[in-house]
Design brief:
Strand content: 15-25%
CATH superfamily: Alpha/Beta hydrolase fold, catalytic domain
CATH class: Alpha Beta
Oligomer: single chain
Largest sheet: 8 strands, mixed
Structural class: alpha/beta
Distance between the termini: 45 Å
């Protein structure tokens, strides 16, 4: 690209970012909505009339849009699974409001996720389902499999899912303070507002990459002629701007039992009079963690190998990448996705 072309590209990109509504509008992969109930929207990718290979259900976390699995062309696990000869499905919880303040983990592992798994299986003549989940979606999938081992699950893949919260450096000072205070301050906002509001979730996610936020103006200025880099940045900004809230009761469970008491690392999660024992999981599991992940450390994710004592195999892989990047970054097609493809094929 010569100087004139570089200047023209930079000018066009600057105009699009400032006044033109962006460089690349969001274009989701083609899909068909199979059901649309509150917090239970289920869509199937690919030809509406064709089922190819094994069914794969993608499970997002809470407080993150389901577009994490279909960020943009070339950064879409949904497209990759379809192109690799499988039929991908996506579970989408939609928005979380004050009316959802009493929803807890039980709503997800007793109803929402099992219902999606059964529906995907039924849509494939009763075939068992591979489940691929990101971050807290992996936690909720593990809870589901441990609480209901009669579900038609063939295998589970977790990506960037923390297990040992004592191995999360960013959380260490908060956990120490909570042990002194009893942890009441951690749920004060959720009890007052009925949730952790989406602006707080968005701000928290940005805070984990504060250096990126500080350098963003310089990044834009120095890459105005690099359209692809700007489009990738734009996709991340769009993703972060769509983050929904946490239900108040569920966040209280997450804070008290998982963050402060670190139940997952012990292999058992106590919720009221129920105890979810992760040794009950009896399907093969693949866990992938990113070496550059500021939210889920590799050592925190690696704990999964110890707690799933009943699984026939537990495979753990480290790959380069940030928390979102390990799932949907530009390099994921060469790092994370081949591990998923090989595991599902086996």
């Amino acid at each position: 690209m010569n100087l004139v072309e570089t200047l023209n590209t930079a000018t066009s990109n600057a105009w699009a970012l400032l006044f033109g509504g962006g460089l690349e509008p969001y274009t989701p992969a083609p899909s068909t909505v199979l059901s649309d109930e509150p917090h239970r929207l289920l869509r199937r990718y690919g030809d509406p009339e064709t089922r190819v290979g094994t069914p794969v259900l993608m499970v997002p976390p809470l407080a993150a849009p389901a577009t994490c699995f279909d960020l943009r062309p070339g950064q879409s696990l949904a497209e990759f699974l379809l192109d690799s000869g499988r039929t991908p499905y996506l579970l989408d919880y939609g928005t979380i409001s004050y009316a959802d303040r009493r929803l807890g983990f039980e709503e997800w592992f007793d109803d929402i996720i099992p219902g999606a798994i059964r529906q995907v299986s039924a849509d494939n003549n009763g075939e068992p389902v591979d489940v691929v989940a990101w971050c807290l979606g992996g936690t909720m999938t593990l809870m589901t499999a441990a609480a209901h081992n009669d579900l038609p699950i063939r295998s589970i893949v977790t990506v960037a899912t923390p297990i040992d919260y004592g191995k999360l450096p960013n959380l260490a000072p908060i956990r120490r303070f909570a042990r002194l205070t009893g942890g009441f301050e951690g749920t004060l906002l959720s009890r007052l507002a009925g949730s952790i509001p989406s602006p707080v979730v968005q701000a928290s996610f940005r805070a984990t990459a504060i250096e990126r936020e500080i350098k963003k103006p310089w990044f834009i200025a120095s890459n105005l002629h690099q359209t692809e880099k700007l489009v990738q940045m734009e996709a991340i900004e769009r993703f972060m701007g769509m983050m929904p809230a946490y239900p108040g009761r569920l966040y209280g469970q997450l804070w008290g039992r998982i963050m402060v008491r670190n139940d997952l690392a012990k292999g058992r999660l106590k919720l009221g009079d129920r105890t979810i024992d992760f040794s009950n999981i009896d399907v093969p599991v693949l866990a992938v963690a990113g070496t550059g992940d500021a939210i889920t450390s590799v050592e925190s994710a690696r704990k999964i190998v110890e707690i799933l004592s009943g699984a026939p195999t537990v495979q753990f892989e480290e790959v380069p990448g940030s928390h979102l990047g390990v799932l949907a970054g530009p390099a994921a097609k060469d790092t994370t996705w081949p591990h998923i493809d090989k595991f599902l094929a086996a």
